[in-house]
Amino acid sequence: MYIQQFLAYLEKNKKLSPNTLAAYRRDMQRFASYLELAGLPPAEQADKPTLVAYVLSMQKEGRANATIVRNVVTLRSFYAYLMRMGAIAEDPSEGLTPPKAQKTMPGILTPEEVERLLEQPDPTTVKGERDRAMLELLYATGIRVSELIALQLSDLNFEMGFVRCGERERIIPIGRTCVAALQQYIQGARQQLIAGRDDGTLFVNMYGRPLTRQGFWKIVKQYAAMADIAGDITPHTLRHSFAAHLLQNGADMKSIQSMMGHMDISSTQIYAQVVNSHLRDVYQKAHPRA
């Protein structure tokens, strides 16, 4: 009962994205299932040892550190809500410490691999024209998939050359190549796909409905295979490549942080490590006395 009330409270009172709300729901459902399978009291009656045991169980299952951290944050929010409601007298999540999330080096593409990827969609077809516009925009801006599929026509400003996106609204420049691909898609393929049913969504699927995250992931993987790019290429790979290539070409860290929408600059600084690592590899391979 309290879990459903908590989720309803978040949906009504917090300005959270659908993806964030879905994550809260998954986290609470996972915790509730754990308690039920273990024959323990419901979430509102859980004590601190139970929460500690739950965190340890996720570690033993091999859950990613970031997933465990997010679950701990969800539990803290849940028990803070119960405290405000007067449903519990003590907060069992107080002092609950998640494992320290390890920052892994993001995979990036070379500029040549990006070029090959962007050349794969066939702009003479409706699907190819749409896909080229999406890939060009993703690499031109480094926006997240959730932001890409949520874009509205009104978020584009071709005259000034920028796109507006994100929960915490930010403005990102777009270049001539990206603008040309978007204009061609909007005037051509998009008109055919929406067939008069226009709700303002920028990118739609082949049935004229808003594109899904899963749909776009499949598109990226399809073209990565066609471009013969090794490794697990995802939309986030293009986001990482956008940041790393900007840094390689002299962009300052604060500007990249702003365009990426990072709250903490430490999230942006990891790209400096990627670039430095790449430069070391180049040096080792190219310098005659390396």
3D structure, described in words:
- It is a single chain.
- The chain is mainly alpha-helical.
- It folds into 2 domains: 84 residues, Orthogonal Bundle (DNA polymerase, domain 1); 176 residues, Intergrase catalytic core (hpI Integrase, Chain A, Orthogonal Bundle), CATH 1.10.443.10.
- A 3-stranded antiparallel sheet has the order 1-2-3.
- A hairpin with a 4-residue loop joins strand 1 and strand 2.
Features of the shown structure:
single chain; 290 residues; mainly alpha; DNA polymerase, domain 1; hpI Integrase, Chain A; 3-stranded antiparallel β-sheet; 13 helices
Short structural description:
This protein is mainly alpha-helical and 290 residues long.
Rounded radius of gyration (Å): 22 Å
The third-level CATH topology of the largest domain is: hpI Integrase, Chain A
The spatial strand order of the largest sheet comes to 1-2-3
- Give me the oligomer status: single chain
Instruction: Provide mean pLDDT, rounded.
Output: 88
CATH class of the largest domain: Mainly Alpha
Largest sheet: 3 strands, antiparallel
Strand content: under 5%
Low-confidence stretches: none
Number of domains as seen in the coordinates: 2
Using the 3D structure, state the CATH architecture of the largest domain: Orthogonal Bundle
Helix/sheet category? mainly alpha
Helix content: 55-70%
Shape category = globular
Helices and strands, with pairings:
Blueprint (H helix, E strand, L loop, with lengths): L1 H12 L4 H20 L10 H13 L4 H21 L25 H8 L7 H16 L3 H6 L5 E2 L4 E4 L4 E4 L2 H12 L1 H6 L18 H14 L8 H14 L4 H8 L4 H22 L4
Antiparallel strand pairs: 1-2, 2-3
Helix pairs in contact: 1-2, 6-8, 6-11, 11-13, 12-13
